[in-house]
């Protein structure tokens, strides 16, 4: 499992969490028929990085992709994003798609999103059972 984390400093992390999840949820509903194509020319994105589902509360969220997921957490002063995927290419596509959406919704505040690669969790390379990451995983990393 490959993963990367981004921490976005903002005084409105909850607002951006709900906007990001809401925007990606709309894309997953509006563009499911385009999954059979490899590239969405209309939005300039690789369909492999299109979300399948997104849901959130005011402080936590998850965006699921075909081969990965992004877990979100809004703290008092930042939005934390943890992207995880089965392979590096899928992780990169997810990172690019999420960053592009954040640039759109955060353009007024000029939000800065920089991904930091995280090392694989112990046991994942050996075939040990995998579990989905939770908010606690983000906070203890």
Explain what this protein looks like in three dimensions.
With 141 residues, this protein is an alpha+beta fold. It has a single domain, classed as 2-Layer Sandwich (TATA-Binding Protein), CATH 3.30.310.50. Helices cover 30% and strands 30% of the residues. It has a six-stranded antiparallel beta sheet with strand order 4-5-6-7-1-8, with helices on one face. Strands 2-3 form a two-stranded antiparallel sheet. α1 packs across α2. The longest helix has 18 residues. About 21% of the residues have low confidence. InterPro entries: UCP028291. Pfam families: DUF2218. This is DUF2218 domain-containing protein.
Structural class: alpha+beta
Kindly estimate the percentage of residues that lie in beta strands according to DSSP: 25-35%
Gyration radius from CA atoms, angstroms: 15 Å
Question: How far apart are the first and last residues' alpha carbons, in Å?
Answer: 15 Å
Stretches with pLDDT under 50, minimum 5 residues: 30-45, 122-135
Kindly identify the CATH topology: TATA-Binding Protein
InterPro entries: UCP028291 (IPR014543)
Pfam families: DUF2218 (PF09981)
Protein name: DUF2218 domain-containing protein
Region (Disordered): 117-141
């Amino acid at each position: 499992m490959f993963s990367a984390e981004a921490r976005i400093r903002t005084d409105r992390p909850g607002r951006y969490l709900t906007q990001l999840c809401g925007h990606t949820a709309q894309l997953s509903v509006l563009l499911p028929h385009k999954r059979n194509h490899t590239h969405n020319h209309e939005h300039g994105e690789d369909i492999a990085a299109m979300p399948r589902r997104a849901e959130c509360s005011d402080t936590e969220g998850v965006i699921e992709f075909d081969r990965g997921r992004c877990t979100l957490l809004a703290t008092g002063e930042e939005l934390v994003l943890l992207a995880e995927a089965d392979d590096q290419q899928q992780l990169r596509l997810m990172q690019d798609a999420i960053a592009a959406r954040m640039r759109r919704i955060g353009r007024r505040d000029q939000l800065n999103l920089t991904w930091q690669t995280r090392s694989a969790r112990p046991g994942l390379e050996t075939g040990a059972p995998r579990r989905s990451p939770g908010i606690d995983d983000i906070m203890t990393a």
